[in-house]
């Protein structure tokens, strides 16, 4: 894995997004890489309920949603950025 790559992505996200933009962390899991960068308003989306529970305890996201990333429960224009470092 290229260690610099996540930091480059975060730099671009900070430059491109406005302060009121919502970012979805798709497949946020128990060790979200994007959450540690404290970006704007971050919503974690995860299909596996135990991972949501871990994220709730660690308070890494502003909100958490239990959902399948293929069928997101958000309006099309309600979210400006959908992001995932990796989905298996």
Describe the protein in words.
26% of the residues lie in helices and 20% in strands. With 88 residues, the protein is an alpha/beta fold. Strands 3-2-1-4 form a 4-stranded parallel sheet, covered by helices on one side. The mean pLDDT is 78. Strand 2, helix 2 and strand 3 (63-66) form a beta-alpha-beta unit. It has one domain (4-83): Rossmann fold (3-Layer(aba) Sandwich).
Describe the secondary-structure layout.
Elements lengths: L3 H13 L5 E5 L14 E6 L2 H10 L4 E4 L14 E3 L5
Parallel strand pairs: 1-2, 1-4, 2-3
Short description:
The protein has 88 residues and is α/β, with parallel strands linked by helices. It has helices at 4-16, 49-58; strands at residues 22-26, 41-46, 63-66, 81-83.
Protein traits:
26% helix, Rossmann fold, 4 strands, four-stranded parallel beta sheet, alpha/beta, 2 helices, single chain, 88 residues, globular
* Whole-number count of domains: 1
N-to-C SSE string, H for helix and E for strand: HEEHEE
Number of helices: 2
The radius of gyration computed from the alpha-carbon positions, rounded to a whole number of angstroms, is: 12 Å
Structural class: alpha/beta
List segments where confidence is low: pLDDT < 50 over at least 5 consecutive residues.
none
Spatial arrangement of strands, main beta sheet: 3-2-1-4
CATH architecture: 3-Layer(aba) Sandwich
Number of strands: 4
Separation, N- and C-terminal Cα atoms: 16 Å
Helix content: 25-40%
User: CATH H level: which superfamily?
Assistant: Vaccinia Virus protein VP39
The residue-averaged pLDDT reads 78
DSSP strand content: 15-25%
CATH class: Alpha Beta
How would you sum up the global shape? Answer: globular
């Amino acid at each position: 894995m290229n260690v610099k790559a996540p930091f480059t992505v975060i730099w671009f996200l900070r430059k491109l997004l406005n302060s009121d933009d919502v970012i979805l962390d798709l497949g946020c899991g128990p060790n979200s890489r994007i959450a540690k960068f404290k970006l704007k308003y971050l919503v974690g989306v995860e299909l596996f309920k135990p991972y949501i529970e871990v994220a709730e305890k660690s308070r890494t996201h502003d909100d958490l949603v239990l959902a399948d990333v293929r069928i997101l429960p958000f309006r099309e224009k309600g979210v400006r950025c959908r992001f995932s470092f990796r989905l298996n």
